[in-house]
Each structure stands twice: as structure tokens, then as C-alpha cells.
Amino acid sequence: MKLLALPLLLAAASLQAQPVVEPARQPSAPQQPDALDAESAAAKLKGWKGSVTRADGRLVCRTRTSTGDRRLDAIRCGAMLTCARPLQGEIDQLMASAMPAGERRLAFDRLLATARPCMDRYQDEALARLLTEEGGQS
User: Fold this and answer.
1) Distance separating alpha carbons of residues 133 and 131, to the nearest angstrom
2) Who contacts 91 (Cβ-Cβ below 8 Å, separation ≥6)?
3) pTM (predicted TM-score)
4) Whose CA is closest to 4, among 56, 50, 49, 52?
5) pLDDT tens across 2-46, in order?
6) Pairing with 136, which of 22, 32, 90, 98 sits 20 to 30 Å away (CA)?
7) CB 79 within 8 A of CB 12
8) Are β-strands 49-55 and 5-8 bridged in parallel, bridged antiparallel, or unpaired?
9) Contact call for residues 62 and 12 (beta carbons, < 8 A)
10) Closest CA to 67 of 79, 54, 84, 56
11) Of the candidates 130, 16, 132, which has an alpha carbon nearest to the alpha carbon of residue 67?
12) Is the dihedral of CA 30, 75, 2, 57 positive or negative?
């Protein structure tokens, strides 16, 4: 099956299954979670970049630019996986199409834009849970 990469720079919604999150490919010391507040977490999440790829028949998330906090990276990947999963059939059709790469990229962007409200909800809810667990303010 073809490799499927969907760059998404969007945010979050509701967990249906445990996401498979691959860490960013950056050599660094183990990350120690810092205390978070809503403002700093939101700022870090804006810098995250990653993609959803098909591997062994299932969607997996790959972080390209980490937030520096694995918990936040996992929130972003969870949002992408959860919200892209219902679009899998349409994604597969686009990948199998003979349309030129530029047109296909635009079609992917339009399709993924429909998942944005889902990803926003996921991120907001997951971040609120994380902040509550830490005793932070949201």
C-alpha cells in the first residue's frame, strides 16, 4: 500500500483509540515535563509540526517539529489521528487517483480542513484535562 503522508498543522478533538505517537527525530536529553499553564501550552502547540502516515495498514503520527513537551506532542498527534481516521476512505481515494501532485495536495488540504473543528475540540479538551491534572489554570 502506498505511503500516505498528510501534513497537518492543525489542532485537536475526541479520542477514539490510543494514538501511536512517534517522537521527533531530534537528538536530545530525555524531556522533563515542565509545569504548564494554558498560555504557554497554547504557544508551544502553535510551533508543532507533524504528519499522519499509513504504516502496516494503519494511521500513525510523526512529529517533525516538537513542542519540547511530549505530552503536548501526544495531544496534537491524538487530534490528528482521531480526526483523520473517519476520512480514511476519502484519503485512500485521493492517493489512488491519477491527478497531478499539486492538485492532489490542494484536495488533501480541502479534505483536512473539514477535520479542523474536530481537532480544535480534541486539543482544547485534552489540554484542559492535562492542566487540571497538574493543578494549572485553564
Assistant:
1) 5
2) 4, 6, 84, 108, 111
3) 0.68
4) 52
5) 443 343 333 333 333 444 555 555 544 445 556 778 889 989 999
6) 22
7) yes
8) antiparallel
9) no
10) 79
11) 130
12) positive
